[in-house]
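Lecture notes, structural biology module. Today: joint structure prediction for complexes of two components.
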Amino acid sequence: MMDMTSTPFTMQPGPVPSTSTSRSYPSTSSISSPSSFEPKPVSVTDPRKESDGQQPFVSYNIVSKNATVRRRFQDFVWLYNVLYNNYPACIIPPLPDKHRLEYVKGDRFSTDFVEKRRDSLGRFLQRIARHPILSHSEYFVMFLESSEFNDSSARALRDSQETVIESLGDSLLNAFTKIRKPDQVFLDMKDRVDRMEENFSLLEKTLSRTNKRVDDLSHDYVELANSVNGLGQLETNFQQGLALFSNASNTYANQVKTLAAHETDWLHHIHDYMAYHLSMKEVLKLRDQKQLDFEELSEYLQSTVKDRDRTMHGVEAQNLTGFLAGKLNEVRGADMSKIRRERVLRLDDRIHELEDAIEQSNEVSSAFSDQVKKENEYFTRNNALEMHEALKAYASAKVSFYQQGIDTWQHVVDALEEQS
Amino acid sequence: MTTANSYYTPCSCNIHRLLTSDDSFIYITGSQKQSDAAGKAYVAYNIRLGSMESKHRYSEFESLCKALTKLHPTVIVPPIPEKHSIMDYAALQTRVKDDIAMVEKRKRMLQTFLNRVAKHPVLNHDHVFHRFLESGVPWSDVLHSPPLSIMPKNTMQMIVNNDILAARGNSNHILSSHLIPIPSATYILNNPDPQFEESEQFTYRVANYMSNNLEKSQRKVIRRLELANDYAELGAVYNGFSLNEENEVANAIEKIGQAVDASYSNMGEMVTMLEGDFAEPIQEYAQFAHTIKQVLKFRHMKHAQVEMIETSLASKKEHMQELSDMEGEARRLEEAIAREHTIGQNAVNVDDINNGTVDADGNPISAPNGFDPVQSNPYARPPTSPTTSSPSARRASISSPARRRSRYAWSGPMQMVNAVSHTIQGLIDVDPVATRRNQIGKTKDAINILEEALDITQLDLEGISKDVQADLDRFQTEKISDLKDMLLAFAKAHIRYCQKNLESWQEVKDDIDKIPVQF
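The predicted structure, tokenised, for the full assembly:
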């Protein structure tokens, strides 16, 4: 059960709470309405291996409208944590997997791994930049622009801002207790995410299988090229024609390999897309939790009121303990009516407390729910953009492959038909 | 090509006219399961040429192929698809006869076989082939009538060249004489023709390469492409995905699903094209090698036969010489006895005879000349061939001096045996003179037969060599042309595949551009 006195909406004291737009959930929109919101372009480039004197690490160039800075993965982790803590009703985009196999294998400086990470980190920042609330967070701005980021004082401050992240999520959200009055809107959202998850894992599985085959196919065409070339050594009067074909097969093999690389990119995008949906799911759970808190408080209030009414009207306790206690009191010669009055007073106090808490909880729950509805909009809008980009790249790669394929083989046909 | 054959007369019947007309492609239009007399099922293939139709089963095709090979030993007869192997049976779940892909493949390859035969300048005149194509002619009839019914068991007993027969006004039987040797397969030529040796080597190298290297690598590509079944699953996944999205995004993803589905059928089409126009010809050419081997072997054997006849002739002549020398000595002895002390003025230095520098009559023997190999075309013949020199000069030059036997008994075990038998004969003989006269007569006859056979076979060999060379050249040209067609087919199949997929993915791209992206 949540601590009733402070809600998770209160801001931790931060370094520069300047404008009102740094508050998470103003009910009146002091934030610019979605249609006029222009996301700032941000990109992650140029990964470089550096050393802090103890261990090597990779740093990335962060290019934004107002500045260009260098940051490392650790810094991204800080940004994530701090946003997660301070904007619980927002869907914070996930970081690329920290505990990947490459760490175990010691391969975390390989070009492939670094490139994938750079791509995902870029997506992470773009998603934040597209979020009307998160993009205005001073933490984000600091991340993008601060030149003192690497000073020790700044670091110390940041350490205090981070709390252990795992707890908030898991401990509360494990039991998915049923809400009494589920809102269809949120049920639909959850449904959608679940189905998306299913589709994606199936897609990922199938695509990685077909992609392996495409890669193998590329090698097969190289082998064929060698075979045909070898035949040319024997059938010397047709050597030219055979060599021509052999070259085309090699060229095609390269094109197939490139296609396989694009498939891998597409797979990677899908993976990131799926991870973002999981973040959304977590927020939905949290929202449900808030509603649950409210509902449980209300229930508690109800039973407390009932209790007080019963006590007041002298109806004895219904259960065995109460009966025994009553009997014991009789034996001790306690004053029943005094006891009763004290009890009623205690219950009244509790009822007042509860009523306050409920009011607050209700506010929290409604505000949270409203925000989540808005989050859904931002989320959907972002996804359309991301999908658009990813699909465009994928389809372009396919179109390009088939066009090149036609050219490669047409060249063979033209050359051979000429040799009449 | 000059080839004509004693068992074969070029036929220009109406079927030949059909074959050379415009509408001359032979089609195998279909196949049906039928039952033979014993009730066992088999597949019959329907053949159509122009308006003429006939039906044959696989074993009959096999029989035709064998017949053509026997009738035309100097021709490279096209191969038929191999019999179903144990592997085929093991790999399939249904019976091999029922498997559609197998039957289709056979149809294609048998059709190719018939058309290659039809295109061959010699084979397409063959009436046995014509009768195969003719409607209503059962194959057993063809097998039991000439020429197939009268062919000798062994092709070495055949005279291939018709012109020789015409010149001799003779039947074939001279080669059936017991005197005429039939070389064994392992006979090694004393004077192998380097040109044909080279051709043999080349043929083996190419065939090995085709069946080991090229066949394997092209099979890998096609097999990998066949795994396009994955795509069908993928299409369904994308469709499910699109149901979860909205509007334009859903549309775009649905289109991807469709493009992926299309990939599946396009791939299947490409694989079929590659099987028929690329993979099968490679298999055929690997098989052709076997046929060429047979043809070259035939020529090799004829050459071997010629050498063996020469050897036999030489030994007979030697024997003759011995006999006539003995005869001569006997006579001289008589004369000497009559003349008392004359020494033979015709005596010849025995050592010279032994060394082979001088023959029995005292004539010097010259050394043979060699052949010059030349090549641009691997099968090409040099322009001036030593095979045009006259038979008698060749007879003298081909035999190697080293093989001439010594006249005297002590130079080898054979000589020992001869000497012993000679002595025994002398002991047993009542009348050595009469026996000797008898032997001289027989040997003379044998020599005549052998000389004639040698003449014939040498001429035949010349003709055979020329024809084999011509067919090798024709084959080489056809092979290069076929190779070119195969490469073209491969390229075109890929172009078609890429074009169709390009269309569907361009539609996808267009739909993606419709996704609204405002902020």
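Point to remember: Residues 1-151 of chain B form a domain with the PX Domain fold (CATH 3.30.1520.10).
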